[in-house]
Write a structure and sequence with these properties.
Blueprint lengths: L1 H34 L5 H22 L11 H25 L2 H8 L2 H12 L6 H18 L9 H23 L5 H23 L10 H26 L4 H22 L6 H18 L12
Helix pairs in contact: 1-9, 1-10, 2-3, 2-8, 2-9, 3-7, 3-8, 4-7, 4-10, 5-6, 5-7, 5-11, 6-11, 8-9, 10-11
Length: 304
Amino acid sequence: MPHANVTVGSANTARMLVVLLAFAWGLNWIAAAVALREVSPWALRVAGTGIGVITLLAAAIVTGHKLRVPRGEYLHVMVAGFFNVAAFQIFSGFAQLNGATSRAIIITYSMPIWTTMLSALVLGERLNRIRLIAFSLCVAGLAVLLWPLFANEFPTYVFYSLGCALSWTIATVYIKWAKVKVEPLANAAWQLLFGLLFIIAGTLVFEGTPHLWPVNNETLLGVLFIGILGVGLAHFLWWSIVGRLPTITASLGTLINPVVGVTASALYLGEKLTVPDIVGFVMIFAAASCVLLQPNVKHAEMPE
């Protein structure tokens, strides 16, 4: 009986962490929007990811997690790190720099649907009725959201936002295809480290030495929030939560992320949602819910 109480207590704690994690990842977009007023996407990601790597590695070491990668799997983790960390973060930075953060969030969080479709093509996973409904909702939602934006010209941030969704999708499906056996937290840590190296290389090629100082206090707080909470501790919490809760419960946290991000964009950044924005968001959110909340389906993604 005492053991059961401990289990219930642990599960309740994990549920609270799910909510905290959703706010960390949701507000991560707002911190980025603030920091991008003064620093470039390249410089922001060098600093934020660098701090995140240090935070995650420190948390893993202190809690006794093993970070060993089996021989022959470094290449797979490196490929995933390129798409899941480097490409995702750079695309998201330029998406926010060139358009509304709320719209970037809405388009980016169509990623569970693209993962479902690519998994069907590459891995042969069956497309059941729920997944087909989700895909239809996602396409309809994107059409409603994007059609008014294409009336005058092609908005570049749409390309970057879709790049976020597809880079995350490619990394997720690749890891499944490669059947990587790395312990999840170690996988996250090494993906972040390899992703950071790719970001540094890209920064030196496209921008030169990143401008990170001097910056005002608001920018500094934004960078620290991204690195410590939005990247480092958030990834650590996610993999701690996944092991304690049913997949559906953990996935609910994933669905809260865009809600927090879009709401905070309206409240803090002053972005006004149009009717197509709201309708498109509701449809994409419903599509993601159909995919993520299916019973007996395990998700091993990092739904930043």
